[in-house]
UniProtKB/TrEMBL annotation:
Residues 114-192 form the Quinate/shikimate 5-dehydrogenase/glutamyl-tRNA reductase domain. Shikimate binds at S15, K16, S17, T62, N87, D103, Y219, Q247. This is Shikimate dehydrogenase (NADP(+)). Its EC number is 1.1.1.25. The active site is at K66 (proton acceptor). Involved in the biosynthesis of the chorismate, which leads to the biosynthesis of aromatic amino acids. Catalyzes the reversible NADPH linked reduction of 3-dehydroshikimate (DHSA) to yield shikimate (SA). Belongs to the shikimate dehydrogenase family. Residues 240-269 form the SDH C-terminal domain. One of its GO terms (cellular component) is cytosol. NADP(+) binds at E78, G128, A129, G130, G131, A132, N152, R153, T154, I155, G156, K157, I217, G240. Homodimer. It comes from Ureibacillus massiliensis 4400831 = CIP 108448 = CCUG 49529. Gene3D superfamilies: Leucine Dehydrogenase, chain A, domain 1, NAD(P)-binding Rossmann-like Domain. Pathway: Metabolic intermediate biosynthesis; chorismate biosynthesis; chorismate from D-erythrose 4-phosphate and phosphoenolpyruvate: step 4/7.
Length: 276
């Protein structure tokens, strides 16, 4: 029987997930389809019941439902439970709804695809302590990264993650700016660059080491102001599209037990974003 999948969110029309998953189904000869569904916060419970009733095999969850969907699910994977957020739902063979979070792992897959997996001892700085930063911090720890600091405008949010992780330290943005030369991998995980459409840095990169690796998880624009500035200072950069594609690929694997081709998808979506 044809399988079907969806992404629910508000707004949803700009999501690249339907194109990504439908392309993979076609490439891999899988008889399935993936549709975007606009679900407002007050419709979430009804939407989950309807997806279940109508036999969806699984779905992705995006802003603003990643946390609020949890009470409507039957089980959570360990990482999703720790993060308190779900971006992928699988309908199990027993008909239960199980929530996963593939964002953080997607980031680590993307980072290691770009730089290899030999950097796990390095000093890592995550800038930001929102949902995405939290997922990245937990996934980095799960993959064996040992030195993780988190800088955030609201320091209490960085402290909360560090306390749960039980490694690294929480600092404010000024401290991050002043000690930037002690970090070897820097991950921009705030939405600051998107605020009001003006691409400001959350802090100055003056002390960046030229041999640092700098990643930004924002992928539209592909080359953010943060990455551009880091590149000008000689750093190696990783954009946020790989994270998006790999979080989708990990979700796809949860649903269909196969890992799709991420390289051709990154190439395809890079062309699409460059053309926008
Ligand atoms: P949240 O709203 O949960 O967190 C936002 C973060 O940005 C907080 O740390 C917040 O700091 C910080 N921030 C916002 N504005 C400013 C500012 N002007 N100066 C300094 N810090 C600021 O968002 P998410 O974590 O869900 O998402 C963050 C970004 O990551 C978004 O742009 C999103 O599009 C992108 N993303 C990319 C993904 C991908 O697949 N590539 C996946 C998920 C997200 P404070 O705590 O002080 O408010």
């Amino acid at each position: 029987m044809k399988k079907w999948f969806a992404v629910i969110g508000d707004p949803i029309e700009h999501s690249k997930s339907p194109e990504m998953h439908n392309t993979w189904f076609e490439e891999m000869n899988i008889d399935a389809t993936y549709i975007p569904i606009h679900v407002k916060p007050e419709q979430l419970e009804e939407a989950v019941s309807s997806l279940k009733l109508l036999g969806a095999n699984g779905w992705n969850v995006t802003i603003p439902h990643k946390e609020t969907i949890i009470p409507f699910l039957d089980e959570l994977d360990e990482l999703a439970e720790k993060m308190g957020a779900v971006n992928t739902v699988v309908r199990t063979e027993q008909g239960k709804l199980k929530g996963y979070n593939t964002d953080g792992k997607g980031f680590v897959h993307s980072l290691e695809e770009a730089i290899g997996n030999q950097h796990r001892e390095k000093q890592v700085l995550i800038v930001g302590a929102g949902g995405a930063a939290r997922g990245i911090a937990f996934a980095l720890k799960q993959y064996g990264y040992k030195n993780i600091s988190i800088a955030n405008r609201t320091i209490g949010k960085a402290e909360a993650i560090i306390n749960e992780l039980e490694i690294g330290s929480a600092i404010n943005l000024l401290q991050a700016e002043q000690t930037l030369d002690s970090f070897e991998i820097i991950i921009q995980a705030t939405s600051a660059g998107l605020a009001n459409g003006d691409f400001q840095l959350p802090f100055s990169l003056e002390k960046l080491q030229p041999e640092a690796i700098v990643a930004d998880i924002v992928y539209n624009p592909l080359k953010t102001y943060f990455l551009n500035s880091a590149e000008k200072l000689g750093a190696r950069t990783v954009n946020g599209l790989g994270m998006f594609v790999h979080q989708g690929a990990i979700a796809f694997e949860h649903w269909l037990k196969q890992y799709p081709n991420t390289n051709s998808m990154i190439k395809r979506l890079t062309e699409r974003l460059e053309g926008e």
